[in-house]
Every structure is written in C-alpha cells, then in structure tokens.
Amino acid sequence: MTQFSLDKALQAITERNAEAPDLSEGIGRIDQNTPEVKRRRIRQLEAAVLSQIEYLQGEPESELKTTRLNVALDRLGELRAELGDYEGAIAVTVDVRRVAEYQKVQEAIARDPSETCACPLVRVVDGASGFVTLSPRFKAQRILTEKGYLDLIRCANCGFMNAK
Amino acid sequence: MPRTLQGLPKLAEWLGFRGYRSSVPKEESGDYLAVGSENVMLTGTRKLQAFKGMLERPDSDGGMVMMNVAEQYASIGQVSDVTAYGNAFNVYASLFYIGKGLVRLAGESLMVTASATLSLLIKRAGGYTDPESGPWQAGLAQPSAPIIRAITPPAGFTGKVNGVVSAVIWRIRSTTGAVSIHSETSNIVAAANQSIAITLPLPDANGQDYWGIGVTRNAEGRVGAHFELTEISESEVDGDTISRTDVVTTAASPTITSAAAGFTSDHIGWTVNLTSVSPAFTLSTYVIAVPAPNTLTLAAPVPSTASGVSMALGTAVEGTERTVVIEWRDGDLIGKEFAPYRDYPPPNGLYAGAIEDIVFVDGCYADAESATSSAVRGSAIAPSEPGKPESYSPDSVIFTNDIPTALLRGDGVYWRLGRNSCYVITYLGGQEKPLSVQIVWEGLGIEYQHQACVGEGGRVYIWPNERGPMRMSGQASLEGDFATDVADDLALCTIPKKRVIGWDGKFQVMAFCYGTRIWPWFTALQAWGAPAQVAADIEGDIVSCVTENGILLITDAADNLYEYNAGNGSVMKVRTGWAMSNGGMDNVALIEAAVRSDNVSSVIIDTFADGDETAAVSSMAVAPSRTGYQRLPAVWPNVLDCESHAIQITIESTSETGDCGVESITTYGDAHSMIR
C-alpha cells in the first residue's frame, strides 16, 4: 500500500510522458461555416431543443413551463431559420417580431434575384481613393437555403431585401 | 498462564478487529470480521461501530449521475434512464451542463434536459428558474449586419465621424461574456462631421442581452478592419414605449398635443403611431421637435382634426426603431481589439468541465455524418478561448485516441476515463494551448460514469467491468492490492452498471456499492468495514453517489436520495473468523462478549461449528443490563465436539448518535484430542 500524494502522482505522470510525444492540437481547420458542417451543427442544436420541448410538454402546467416552452419554441424557430426552413420557423415561433422578420426573409428568397429597389447610388469622396460610388444595398447576411448559401441583400434606405 | 473462567480454559479470543476480510483462508486465524458480518463501520483505531443506516432526504431527488456544483450537488438523468451521463458545473453566474437526461440541482428539477449541446442556465435572484435564466445553448450565432446612416449629431454628440465608414456587430451574453463572431459588414456611408445611427437586428432567442459594435477608422469604410468600439445593452436598443389616449390633432398640422405633459427633447426622433376612431385614421411618423412639455411636432402632418386620439411613442432615431447613435475618432480605436472572429459556438460532445479560465467539451467530433450523442461518441477535446466559456475556435481542438466514459473533477485537474484508459487534463494557461492532456494509464477503464470516483487526497478509484476495485498509486499507476481482502465478495458483483462508488469525506470512506450492499473502505485505517445491507432502507438498487460538503449522498432506483451512515441505526452482525481447535475438537461451553450498546434490547450470540457458515448450531439471546460499554452476561451454548468454531454477535443500534459496537468475544471450554 502506498500513501497517495496528488502532486507526486502528477509529477510521475509528467515524467513518464516526458519522452512520449504530447497529444497534439488540431492543425487542420474545421470550417464551421461550410453548408454541410453548419447544417449538421444546427440539426444537433435543433435535436437538443426538440428534446427539451418534448420533456416540457410532459410536465404539469406551470408558469415556468410556459416560459421555458416559449423560449424553446423561439429558439427552435431561430434554428429552423438558420437552416433555411423559414416556413417551419414561422410555424413554431412565438415572438411576433421574429415571425415578421422570417416572413421578410422568406419573401426575399422567393423574389427574382435580379429584382432590386430604385434607391440610387451615391457618389462620395473617399479619403483613400478619391470619388467613389456607394450603393445603399449591401450584403446583410449569408443565409443557408436549400440551394446552399445565398447573400441576403438589404437596402439601407428602403429596407428592400433580395437573396442571390 | 492461560486464562480460565469457571474453571474452563480459554478456547479463543477476538479483539482489536482489523477490518472485514471475505477472501481470507478459512483456517487462518486472526482478529478480522469474517463473511457473515454486516453493517460494521470502523472508527478511531479500528473500533467497531454499528452502521447508522440511511437517512432519506424526503424533499430531494437524486439522479443517474451526480456531481458537485458549488456547495450543492447536481444530477443528470432520472434513474429510469441508465444511459444518462454528463456534467454540470459553475461558470460565472451560470450553471453549464451537457450530457443526457433531466438536470436537477440540490435535488430539485430545473426543468431542463441535458443534451450533447453544451447549455446553460443563468442564476438570477438566487435561482435558475427565473424567466430570463434560460435555458440557453452555449455560443451565440452570427447576427445579420446592421444598417448605418450618417446623421446630424443629436444632443450629447459632436459629430466626430468623417469620410466613409462601416460597422459590424456581434451578440453578447453579459453574464458569461459570450460573444458571437462579428456580422457581415454594414452598408458603407460617407460622413462629414456627423454621427452614425446604427440600426440593429432583433436579438437572438438564445439569451443575448448586449450588442457589440465595431467600426473602421474614419475614411476606411470600404477597406478597413473593424475594431471594437462599444457595447450596448439590448434593453437600451429596444427602448421605451409611451402610450397616450388623450391626444388632440389638427388637420394638415404636424403639431399634436396631449393633456398630460412629460415630453422632452429626448423624445426627438422617436416613432409616433396615431390611431383615431372618429374620424378614422392612422399615421406612422416620428417626432422632430418638442416645443412644449405637452406638445410634439411630427415629421408629417396629421390628416384630420380629432381628439381622444391614441398614440404610441417608441424609442427611435429619426423614426427608425432599434437604432442607437455612435461616433468616434480614430484615436478612440487605438489599442482596441479586432471585432471577434474566433468565437464559434462549441461543438457537440459528451462531457464538459471548467478548469481555471477554460471550459472544455470532451467527446466531440464523433462522426462525419451523424450527430454526436450517447450512441455516436467522439474522442476530441475542444477547449474554449481563455475567459470565454462559450467561444471555441475550431482550430484549437485536442485529439485523443479514446472516447470518454467519465470526466471527474479532481483537485485542480480533471480525470478523463474511457473504457481502456485514464487521462489527466491540467491547466497550462496561454492562448495557443491552454490545456495539457496526458495519458495516465492504458488497458483498463470503465463503462459507466458511476464506476469512478475521486477519493482521499485527489486519488482516483475505479471499479472496472472486468476486475475488482483499482486505484491510482502514489506513482500514478494502477494498484488493486487494497481490495484483495474483499475480493471474494466483490467477485460476485458481476453486472458493471450496478458497480457504483462514492466518497464520504466525513468518515474518509470510499464506498463500493452494488445492488443494496455497500462495502466501506476506510482510507485512513487502510481497512474494510463489513458490508452495509441497505435493502430495507432504500427502494431497489443504488444507482449513483455524490459527495456534498463531505457527506456521501446515495440515490436509489426510485430517485430517492439518502445520506450515508446517518440514519437511526442498523442491525450489526459481527462474525469472527474460524477458531481451529488446538487439540482435536473443542467443547464450546461459555461465551463472553463485551459490547457497547445504545439500547437494552437483546443481543443474539450465535455459534457456528465445523466450518459451516450457513447455519448456527447455537443461538442465544442476552439482554444488556444498561446502555454503554459492558460485558454481557455469559452465555453457555455447550457446543460439543467441534473442530472449529466461530461466533456471531447480532446487536441492533437504534439511534443516530448512540454508540454501538462489539469490543471483544472470548470462548471458553475444554479441548480433547479425538478426531473424526
């Protein structure tokens, strides 16, 4: 039998491993924003939320249950929107402001990609390169859709949105 | 000179018991507790003490796996789900959890279920059931880009921005410091001694409560990097709402009045929504001036004259809601960090822990196709960024060759056990490689989380599937010799998932539980107590253990929770080893025993003969004359012609604080040289 000392044990581990190669950190980047990786990750998050919803639905009625259920449903809607399933997001989301936002994005995706608003370009002085032309339309977000990633283009003036 | 009593020579004497031994050779003499002994604890210098039994905590539930959290304990999974696993731990003012099953804290359900996604509840007003507590999933998603406009500086601003600029934003959870990666770049605007109004999207549904804003240097809006400028609370962005139902309007006039005062210049730019019933009209515009405390000038004229008009006034900048005003000089950005770009959410995993300023998720990256779960288990460890428990750069993953089956918090380290190995995870500090993961041993491990426990001085004990109990030696290798005394008993415990071990800091006991029995290993005494039989105290089998403030808590198969050795007593059985006759055979005429009793109920003294452990040849009852230490009245079993004999004292303790034990047992009689 031996008396145990954590310090001595850790020292022994270190000494024993001194000649062995250390466990290496990853050197290859795992890009979490490729459509496949992102979809898989969101589906995992979605599964976690669904299991929470399933659990809550089996619980007796209470204020906390309602609150937690609303939180979970809004989160589920958000994850579905991130997956590009705006129809599914609208169906479950409780917060009406989010529903309105998902509807706008859904309409933007449905639009002809060439459609645009009439807001004019603006010609301004750029300190670095002289006169430049600025567009009020900019890429607000990369959104995942069934077609892969699309750029959600938004007009800063009129709010018009399109996806391409 | 041999002692005699009533003229009878002493046959055998047992005192100073050296613990319980189930695997000792039957004919080896010694002062040990033999098979048949039950409910015996050791105290002091191996003084026998009756096991106190199990004290139920009626208002608390246990769980399938349990662990310490702050000064409490948490459990994951109801006992009906043997596949439950995971960890719960404290980070900032929040409870992080991962695994599978219902999460309870201090025996009460938090109404959240753990999954392979690292999640958290935020402590508010002393609890985790506030509506704002969550649950939230660790990590925040990238927001959409903001919209910016160059505006005339409002009150409090001076117009510092010049040239083309752009902005990015990111989400923040203030309680943990979590941030998302920054958004795409906003639209680009040109400013001329102006301020910037920045319109933010809706917050996420994942507990975000702040926004981070990053901007370029002046005139670098098209090409410049974005630096952190400021953080703004969502409540400030969301703003206030004022409602009135007494508004008077005049046709074609932009001026409206309310009977109540209270308007100030702060309301300039706020949105105004007017609704009139008769005549019916609605108008959405914003405030451009506040000429009097009860008067507003709107950006658009009102269509009709009316009174009793309803008005909703909402926080905005130039009529745009969810907008705040910022401005900066280039000098304001000196020394500022780049807008966050390494702050990805954690990957899914099986276990997680916190060590110094790092949180790590273990068992990640299981499968290229399927989601990580209890069935699809990964082997990588993903550490967070230092001080950012929800930010995980995807290029700082640590790869191991083993899938974890338990992650135990030790004294400043984590022990990571798998089916075939044990690793130690220690903190190194530093941005690039904050954790060290070293192999401790290979070739032996555990299948279920409750098969491992950290005991005295941070020592790891395991009860693996294929072997008896093992523990870490002083040189951090595995040793099993401490458990050889009970090897015969524990060899019968063949179902791995029923092997549960727990640490009692109060009694310095490593408790090895199987079904309804508990074998206590007294680490300070280096000896075993006789197994506690708790079938009458609990429902079904023991499923898990946790140490709370030194007290060992045990969960049974009905999720009930009990304190170990804290009840109102038990029926203690002290059975001696076999005393072999010095001649051919003994006549056991008299038995004398010294006990400590906490009541005066009868004590049973059984005599076993000739190696038969199953049935006593004599059973006699004798009542203590009082409580406390005493020699019991002698009993005369008169067992004749036995080649060997053993004695069992059965004594019931009936109080939590009482003192009950056996001090010594002595047998007297004569021996003769006849043999069978």
Explained architecture:
The complex is a heterodimer of chains A (164) and B (676). Chain A is an alpha+beta fold. Chain A has one domain (35-163). Helices cover 48% and strands 18% of the residues of chain A. Chain A has 5 helices and 5 strands; from the N terminus they run H-H-H-H-H-E-E-E-E-E. Chain A has helices at 6-17, 35-57, 63-83, 86-92, 96-110, and strands at residues 122-126, 130-134, 137-145, 148-155, 161-163. In chain A, strands 3-4-5 form a 3-stranded antiparallel sheet, covered by helices on one side. In chain A, strands 1-2 form a two-stranded antiparallel sheet. In chain A, a hairpin with a 3-residue loop joins strand 1 (122-126) and strand 2. The longest helix of chain A is centred in the first third of the chain and has 23 residues, at 35-57. Residues 20-29 of chain A have low confidence and may be disordered. Chain B is mainly β and 676 residues long. Among the domains of chain B are: 4-52 and 570-672, Jelly Rolls, CATH 2.60.120; 147-238 and 323-333, Immunoglobulin-like (Sandwich); 241-314, Elongation Factor Tu (Ef-tu), domain 3 (Beta Barrel). Chain B has 2 helices and 54 strands. In chain B, strands 6, 7, 8, 9, 10, 11 and 12 form a 7-stranded antiparallel sheet that branches. In chain B, strands 1, 2, 48, 51, 52 and 54 form a 6-stranded antiparallel sheet that branches. The radius of gyration of chain B is 37 Å and the shape is elongated. The mean pLDDT of chain B is 92. At the A-B interface, helix 1, helix 2, helix 3, helix 5 and strand 1 of A face strand 10, strand 13, strand 14 and strand 33 of B.
